[in-house]
Amino acid sequence: MIGTVYDVTIRDDSIRLGQFLKLANLIESGAEAKEVIADGLVTVNGEVETRRGRQLTLGDVVEVGGMSVRVIREEV
């Protein structure tokens, strides 16, 4: 069950999973992103994702360590 979902704004229509984890402050570095993704600790829309380069699009929900964040678009 997902608790609070926090919105994280991106500038474009998509972003790579590894980049988004850093942007959302869910991990400290690219190396840590690689590790948590490879270990199966990251879900995208409720499914385990093991590809660091997975393209996230608006509305996708990423969960790591009990924190859930949603990809939203920057308002112009």
Automatic annotation (TrEMBL):
Protein name: RNA-binding S4 domain-containing protein
Keywords for this protein: RNA-binding
Signal peptide: none
Cited InterPro entries: S4_RNA-bd (IPR002942), S4_RNA-bd_sf (IPR036986)
RNA-binding S4 domain mapped to chain residues: 15-76
Domain of life of the native organism: Bacteria
SMART domains referenced in this protein's UniProt entry, alphabetically: S4
Keyword Lyase: no
Record has RNA-binding as a keyword: yes
